[in-house]
Amino acid sequence: MAETALAGPLRPASGRLWIAPPLLVLAGLFFYPLSLIAIQALTGDGNQVSFDHFAAVFRSALFLGALGHTIEIAVAASTGCLVLGFAIALVLSFVPFPGAREIARFIDTFIALPTFLVALAFTFIYGSAGVLNGALIELFGFETPPVDFLYSPWGVILAEITVYTPFVLRPLMAAFSLIEAAQIEVASSLGARAPRIVREIILPAAMPALLAGGSQCLLLTVNEFGIVLFIGAKGVITLPLLVYDKAIQEFDYTAACVIAIINVALSLSLYMVYRTVIARVGGRNAGVV
Amino acid sequence: MGLAAAQPLSPSAIAGGEGISFENITVAYRGHVVLRDFSLQIRHGEIMALIGPSGSGKTTALRAVAGFVRPQSGRIRIGESDVTDLAPYARGIGMVVQNYALFPHMKIEDNVAFGLRAQKAETGLIAERVKECLRMVGMGAYVGRYPRELSGGQQQRVAIARALAVQPRVLLLDEPLSALDAQIRRSMVEELAKLHRDLPTLTVLYVTHDQTEALTLADRIAIMKDGRLSAFGPSHGLYSRPPNRFTAEFLGRANLLPVRIEGPAGAGLVRVRFGDVELTVPAHATLEIGAECLLCIRPHDLRLAEPHHGNRLGAAVTHVQWQGDHHVLTLDCAGTILRLVSAPLREPPAPGAPFDLGFADQDATLIAPEHG
Lengths: 289, 372
Hints:
The complex is a heterodimer of chains A (289) and B (372). With 289 residues, chain A is mostly helical.
């Protein structure tokens, strides 16, 4: 009986108290500010709760444009991250060459860098007065800078791919390291060439990592602010940028709060989709569900 | 249900089998030679066991046939074709490895069908061959399962079915039973032997460090040491007449007595001296009178001397060990430690007791000394 007593929960009432401190911190730092935003979005400057402000925002062409841009850029950048990350991870993991590990570590350091830094670097390289345009003008005598993609959605997408690819690369490298070399060798001995091995052996094994990395990229790119602001692409306004414009430049706090709430709902929806997909597809493909 | 209980594969189920030849193969990893000037002919339809200790180069030799290791020099042929420069997928081999390497996200039927799909076989043929190969290995009832739902022995059977499904020119087995526990391993060895009886034209290269597997399964055995071929020949001959000390000690247990050849003793026999004792044993092809060499007697060929035994050795029992179905006696014979294996003894001798050893002259083998 003594063993049973020891194995059971000890002093459950005091145990529950340990939840209180983190809950208090979360309440102070997250739930309280979020509730203020929600209240502002629902009441505006009055006291009546209403969805009129939401309706007004949803009727706004500026908001709909920003929502479209946000989703387009996030999907395009995440897709780019997945494709580039998968290709780099494949090469680094399965095509051994001297320095592969060092390159992987170097790419990993991108995670530690502030996002605007890449945007700044891109400005130096691909900007109107950047290295590339300078060289092309000098070589071919162009009157205007020939490379101008940086100030379009493509510039934002390219910068986000550069910044967020390591978020795909890292879990993929970990997943690839778990694939038995013998599986690939046996597949090859059975007559499978590289594309089939990638498609039928490596990709299914890496699916949970791809989903995890891709979803993380999607969440981060949906909420990306620094890159979009820094590049300042013409006509490219995303939800976070619209929140900034409404709150800081137009002092329309109610609209800013409504858009912020929609942005949060979008992020949470994406997160729920990610959890559902990874539970159903990821685990099965990894052979663990 | 095991391989032995399964049904034989139809004659069309394998390509017909072809021999393998290694011609002066040298393989090095970063300058370190792991296989040196290795030559070996494996006949069509035979099981060749490649055995040796870790690092002896046996797996490297197999991987060279599979195409995963590129030789620095030499050629590898399967049948008449030179496959040295061919990619693994173009060699027409079947391969089974120690840890099965089944594809975990695929059902058993998809695992077996993988190679056929890769080779773009017709859908109808794939279904037929998958069924046939799984039935052959006794796994016909498991088509819809995933590898994780099978035991180790069952997974290895599926791996064998997968390798056979593509009608390989040769079957490469790389320590296929090493991950299994002893009891399942024993039964799998018997099942593999049965499989080869059902597919007599299939050429098999079987890499193992387990001498029992090699002796049970192989028609011929090649013994590797330090990247070289140390000995090679029919399994029984190699065991009963080991050509060198390494073979004698690696392939089963051996009692090795230092002896000197004294002179001829009749047809094919010579007299040798071990201390004060003179023994009569089969002559060696190259050792001459006066040569110092080793006399190899297998532990089960030693017994309590009987009147008809011409070869007698006086010894003292140092240790008696009962191992269930046999006794192992350790004896001191003029300073040389010998082992005797016998059927269980009703009254085993006590340690320290004198023991008169005897052996038949044809059960002994002279081994040339190794230099360097």
